[in-house]
Design goal:
The protein is an all-alpha fold. Helices cover about 80% and strands about 0% of the residues. The longest helix has about 40 residues.
Length: about 240
């Protein structure tokens, strides 16, 4: 099913003759960009599901699948960006149309980064195989972080397809929970009773950061969809790094 979230909302002026044809072509191009975003989002969701499973159970084959599949996400992001740049050059969009194209470029970058972070999680699992990455004392915390990242990834695809802002709010709530868990991890490794090895401590800190940043980039995409729907921008400072 074609994705409609990049298409202009109703109430725009009617076009006639050649202008109507040009507008139709433009809308078809926007639809293709939207479809590509959804495809990337689905691949990211698959990647984080596999990556967190490999992380939890030390499945090196599953980890390798995630690492290899990241190239597909990168390729699709480059393809989308090239298409969007062509639209900018050939169609010369302005106002809300320009926001849609620029927004798609920024969303594709966030989705690509989410794919990279899923790959980093899988790389940790592969590095520590046949052992698991984290000590038993942190299992419950990281299992919950994995569930929340999976939820965010799945809901992003729904959001891109539906423009349902309630879904965007759910993503923000899940991110808040991830942030709390991330903070708890750093408190744990800084506590006097933490006696794990330096290597394990680094692994735990890195893994927590990867899970937390994955969620942050999900929020970034949700904010941009919200902006395209409502015209209201509410930055949270989650887009960097």
């Amino acid at each position: 099913m074609a994705t409609r979230f990049l298409l202009p909302c109703s109430g725009r002026r009617e076009f006639q003759g050649k202008d109507a044809y040009v507008r139709k072509v433009f809308q078809e191009e926007l639809t293709q960009v939207g479809d590509q975003l959804v495809e990337i989002s689905r691949l990211v969701s698959e990647a984080i599901n596999k990556a967190t499973t490999s992380f939890q159970v030390a499945d090196v084959d599953l980890a390798q699948d995630v690492i290899a599949a990241d190239a597909r996400i990168d390729f699709l992001q480059n393809s989308l960006d090239e298409r969007a740049i062509d639209i900018l050059a050939l169609q010369g969009p302005v106002a809300s149309d320009l926001r849609m194209i620029v927004g798609s470029l920024r969303m594709s970058a966030s989705l690509e980064r989410m794919g990279d972070l899923a790959r980093h999680i899988a790389q940790l699992a592969r590095l520590r195989y046949p052992s698991t990455v984290i000590p038993e004392s942190m299992t419950e915390t990281f299992n919950r972080m994995a569930e929340l990242d999976q939820e965010i990834a799945d809901k992003l695809t729904v959001l891109l397809e539906s423009r349902d802002l309630e879904v965007a709010r759910d993503i923000l709530k899940a991110n808040t929970a991830i942030n709390d868990l991330h903070l708890s991890v750093f408190k744990a490794i800084a506590a006097p009773e933490w006696h794990e090895s330096p290597a394990t401590t680094v692994d735990v800190a890195l893994a927590s950061r990867y899970f937390e940043r994955f969620a942050d980039h999900g929020v970034s995409v949700a904010q941009k969809v919200t902006y395209l729907v409502t015209g209201a921008w509410q930055p949270t400072g989650t887009e960097h790094s």
